[in-house]
User: Fold this.
Amino acid sequence: MSNTQKFSLSMRLFHWAMAALIISMLAAGLLMVRSLEPWQLTILTVHKAFGVVAAVLVIARLVNRFFHQIPALPNDLSNLQKFVAQAAHWLLYLLLFAMPISGYLMQYFAARPADVFGWFRLPAALNVDIQTYALFRELHGWLALALVALVALHIAAALHHHFIRKDNVLKSML
Ligand code: HEM
Assistant:
């Protein structure tokens, strides 16, 4: 079992940078698909570029995680509570992967190359495959809703640890 009381500095930086990025991506995504304003296209271009950045960050974050010890969960949590906490964390990682991948595949089958801040372009199919595009578009939307629910649960759990149980869980990430 780990004796560490706090997440390493790099893990804390990854955590808060990605929290800001993912919450902004979810908010921008939900806003842009419900608007017909001219800024909608600008947000969409930025959304795709930052989505690719999110994919790179989540890979770097997982690699970084394997090189650092993480604090153990409080001893007084039941085995079931520990299992649920760990399962929720791995599900978060899974969704953080699945969001950019489904977004990219949606664009790939729409034959629209994703431009990343003018630095490079991700390849796209030569012809539109409307059915596969629609499948990934639908998947991207459902995964986003699952991610919103899981992020809300994650924040509620962190606040519960801090204000009700008054343990070290939230402080270990600050
Ligand atoms: C962490 C990464 C990402 C998050 C959290 C995210 C989130 C979202 C959300 C919440 C929506 C609105 C879904 C709906 O209400 O139907 C959306 C739409 C969209 N996303 Fe993403 N996204 C991510 C990555 C990407 C990437 C990498 C791409 C493409 C390269 C992309 C392309 C799109 C497109 C094109 C739409 C608009 C779909 C439409 O209505 O035609 N997304 N995204």
About this structure: The radius of gyration is 18 Å. The pocket of protoporphyrin IX containing FE is lined by residues 22, 25-26, 29-30, 33, 44, 47-48, 51-52, 54, 99-100, 103-104, 106-107, 114, 137, 140-141, 144 (CB under 6 Å).
